[in-house]
Amino acid sequence: MSKQNKLLILVLTLGAFGIINTEMGVIGILPYIADHFHISVSKAGWLVSLFALTVSISGPTMPLLFSGVNRKKAMLLVLGIFVLGNIISIFTTNFTVAIIARVIPAIFHPIYFSAAFTMAANSVSKEDAPKAVSKVFIGVSAGMVLGVPIASFLASTVSFQLSMTFFAVINAIVFIATWAFFPSIPVKERLSYGTQLSVLKNPVTWLSIIAVLLLNSAVFGVYSYLAEYLKTVTNISGKLISFMLILFGLANIIGNIIAGKLLTKNAIKTVVVFPFALGVVYIILFFIGQFTWPMAIMTLVWGIFAGIGTNINQYWISSAAPEAPDFANGLFLASVNLGTTIGTAVGGLFISGMGTEYVVLVGILSLVLSVVFILPRSYMHRPIKQLSK
Fold first, then answer.
1. Calpha distance 83→77 (Å, rounded)
2. DSSP string, 315-369
3. What is the pTM of this model?
4. Over the chain, what is the mean pLDDT?
């Protein structure tokens, strides 16, 4: 890989970190947002749920609309909108304005990630594409593991506004780096909307979308309640819970690195084995949940699998429609966000109906259902042959 391509992937990774910071970091400061706007924490949670819902809606459409736009200009537009949204969030005293300042960047969110994944894959040989994409996902994982505690620390020690300033500064740095180091990247062969939409006629695409939705539901349907699980089932202190969450995030980064190697070596086998392996992890979690140290070890293992799963999701959809990479990445973003929304909702139902310890069953059920769609997809279409030439 050339120095220029390494720099390009580094900036893309930093960009993923900045945008995920803005998306996920708010989770750690919801109580401070509620105090600032004099609203309930559940109402403040709209800043999280509406962002995810907006991404799931705009995921397939926005990358399609921007598929013919110079990638550098498109990325600068997205980053600029995120910086502006962050700045508005710093100064506004109106919660409705704060929601608008979150939803508008969320509309453009898929454009950046769709282009980032495509650019990372195109910067290397086809067989090394999964490794390049996995490096961008490291930025996503770092944004999740660092964004929440850093934002929470800044809000608790200084103010909610300083957390929002942190988000703005990170995105501004990425904006400057993209402007300074990226060459102009015009789209050489613009695909028509019809050509890109035609991938939806392929059953393999739909099998991939449903499988990814279920795989993400399996991970986030349980992870969304990890803090509650550790509090009520494992019965550990708040400090230990924070440590476990950071441990999960760091393990996620390790999972990204491992995933790049596994998908490069044998993608189909990796995807087919994954739900069975994660299922074993969940079964063990169910039986050792009340024990602190075994739970810490399994949280580390689970975090690694979660990182691998994220890369699998992107590969499974993008490889189903290699002729329309931007649109495929948009479908990936929509699928994972919808999977997170559904998994979290079903997880809540399991907790309220059966108890917190049974939230693991959401993961197991989602994994079982995912196999129903993964196996026929793996036999019908093996795009790894195309990518490995």
1. 10
2. HHHHTT-TTSHHHHHHHHHHHHHHHHHHHHHHHHHHHHHH-GGGGHHHHHHHHHH
3. 0.80
4. 86
